[in-house]
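Methods — Computational structure assignment.
A single polypeptide chain was analysed. Its primary sequence is given first, followed by the predicted tertiary structure written as structure tokens.
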Amino acid sequence: RKWQMAETLEDRLSARLTAPAAAQVDLVVGTSADSDRAAAIVSLINEVYGYGRESKGGVLRRLAAGDAGSGANRVLHLALAQCDGGTEVVGCCSSTLCAGWTPWGCGHWGLMAVRQDRTGTRTRTGGLA
């Protein structure tokens, strides 16, 4: 298998994806521990969407939501890769476990963004296009 799909909610929170060509991409649910990445995440999202789709406050709220662990709702998944000597956010995707108009456990995927220079590098293998 080229990638490992999260089977349970706990797996969803700690899924580890390995892209084939030596570039490892880790997919994690962001938490408040990732708040130092908020400006980079906002920049990534807004660049990909071509307008001010997200604010720093919105990203910080979603990151903090990840602190709730397996019951977290409205979280931000982060694709992290080794780039230029450090770990950088190369993509992100939001999800919910409950969209508000659905029963608990029937959520949806929301925004999705991948750094332009990472397209075609199999970052999308783990579900981030």
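Note: The mean pLDDT is 79.
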